[in-house]
Amino acid sequence: MLLINTNNNNYLSFSVVFSKHNFSVSATQTTPPPPPFKSPFSQALASNTEKKLKLPLVSLSKSLRNTQFGFIQDEKMVNFMMDKYIVPSFVVSLLGFLLLYIILRRRTSNYKKKDHKSTQKCDTHNVISSNLTNGECESKKGNDTDVIIVGAGVAGAALAHTLAKEGRKVHVIERDLTEPDRIVGELLQPGGYLKLIELGIEDCVEDIDAQRVVGYALFKDGKSTNVSYPLKHFHSDVAGRSFHNGRFIQKMREKAATLLNVRLEQGTVTSLIEENGSIKGVQYKTKAGQELKAHAPLTVVCDGCFSNLRRSLCDPKVDVPSCFVGLVLELENDRLPYPNHGHVILADPSPILFYPISSTEIRCLVDVPGQKLPSLANGDMANYLKTMVAPQVPPELRDAFLCAIDKGHIKTMPNRSMPAAPYPTPGALLLGDSFNMRHPLTGGGMTVALSDIAVLRNLLMPLQDLNDADELCKYLESFYTLRKPVASTINTLAGALYKVFCASPDQARREMRDACFDYLSLGGTCSTGPVALLSGLNPNPMSLVLHFFAVAIYGVGRLLLPFPSPKKLWIGARLISSASGIIFPIIKAEGIRQMFFPTTIPAYHRAPPVKTESE
Q: Contact at 8 Å (CB) between 514 and 501?
């Protein structure tokens, strides 16, 4: 309520009443209020004060009478007097309060509507954007996506988290968000673990019963040797890790989904959207069957070895040299001949692998050359494993191996190899197994993918805007060169080792196989050098070539001692020729210049595009 004294000594009383949905204003005319009651004590105090301050009060009263606002009545009493601006000011203030009240009500109503819509769109099986820390699901829609990632496997999930952490808005589209069940992608080399640390996602190997791997054990003709990773110069936590592939991928997806600018969606990408030679996004089908389009300045395709999108982005020359037959042995890690080691049996016709994937499970991978496998349905596969493979399995593992065959949980997987041969395309990039594959014998695939992500992250870091597709494509050509030292070393070693470890009727190839086993058994640099290459700790292409031909020369030396003969000299020459025939075609496919002389390629030195002031 507000009282205003008018010139006729009457008072106007204004009152404003607010309710939840409206308000009211009333004005009434009243008589002057009675003077306040004064006790004798207060009167005496006022009289005394007036005597002491008589002159200042009189002067103040006189000066105020001359002003527009003045004080009235007498010198003992000071009253507030109305002037011509009081009523307009009051009305304007009232209108201001009214406007503020309406704005606040509308804003509160809009927030309630948004919260209601967001709650309705939350779905635990088809996650759009999820904050797993507090269990909330928040829908994030719009056309402000920076990067679309096709596939949420190891490469896709790791890339989503890495780019989102840099501030990019990422939309990930994955065909199936349930936990995958695969028999490959279960061994991460120490070099790959270092990349996990570099990308800030090393905690993804925690709480999945992952096992430390510190080296390899090799078995051949009843003999065995072990070679350890050269880890003495690294932190004690650095080692290889082996695990269930599905558990690892789910942990990475969950970690990516905790970032608010990651939108993780289940759907099948059917095609890339192309306009004027540039990729503008993807067309995909949601889990519910709805056909949608998503647009972004950059689309990264990492949908795995069976990619249906890579044909427009690269020249896919896929080779399938063999298939893996997978079993799980119910055996504790410490019951392996060499605990916390990968085991490689140089069997006939091709290698057999054993490594722990949990504290109570051992993965067995039997390599079968070619693309044609014995039938699982009619029992031919079980018979092949029992009669051809089981006798070559170390005695400590044989009973568990036979028991796993009887249980019948046998899986198969083609082993693919594909050199990277991209078509630089504005607005799109390939990554992971959709881009580059090697034989999984050495377990180097995840190390290459994580290394590629680190290279791509560093290239994109200085770029604020990804919308200039042509300039971005030209700049990202350096990615294909910068990744080569790590990728080509691991790719070449995987392909060469597989051919060396396979049995062959050719005597020169047999000598090469024996020489490789004995060379690694020598210890020192002869074992740590090749294992550093295999583990990704020293991805040096020149070191790879030197060690490979050192094995060949060592094999020739074994042949010629103690007394050379024409036959031995001939076998030695064929051994060198066979070694060259193994490694040089792989190097040629990888690119000699990119592999050994990357700094001579102009794209290696390409600087990020810089926007001018006019842009």
A: no
Give residue 605's pLDDT: 84
Average pLDDT (15-26) is: 52
Question: What is the pLDDT at residue 105?
Answer: 59
Coil, strand or helix at 288: coil
User: Is the separation of the CB atoms in 422 and 314 below 8 Å?
Assistant: yes
Q: Quote the tokens at residue 426.
A: 């504005």
Q: What is the rounded CA–CA span in Å between residue 229 and residue 529?
A: 9
Find all residues with CB under 8 Å of 156, minimum gap 6, and list them.
149, 150, 172, 174, 300, 302, 303, 431, 432
DSSP strands (E only) in 163-252: 170-174, 187-188, 211-213, 215-220, 223-228, 240-242
Sign of CA dihedral 264, 266, 270, 273: negative
Query: What's the whole-model pTM score?
Result: 0.77
Distances from the Cα of 92 to the Cαs of 47, 342, 453, in angstroms? Answer: 42, 82, 61
Roughly what angle, to the nearest 10 degrees, separates helices 525-534 and 541-560?
140
Distance CA 210, CA 213 (A): 9
Q: What pLDDT sits at residue 607? A: 87
| Span 78-120, pLDDT tens digits | 344 444 445 555 554 555 556 555 655 555 555 444 444 443 3
CB count in 10 Å sphere of residue 603 = 17
DSSP 37: P
For 538-577, write each residue's pLDDT tens digit.
999 999 999 999 999 999 999 999 889 999 999 999 999 9
Structure-token pair, residue 194 = 């270092």
**4: phi then psi, degrees, rounded to nearest 5:** -125, 130
Residue 50 phi, psi dihedral angles, 5° rounding: -65, -35
Residue 570's alpha-carbon distances to 57, 403, 576, in angstroms, are 128, 46, 10
599-603 contacts at long range (C-beta below 8 A, 24 or more positions apart): 601/481, 603/477, 603/478, 603/480, 603/481
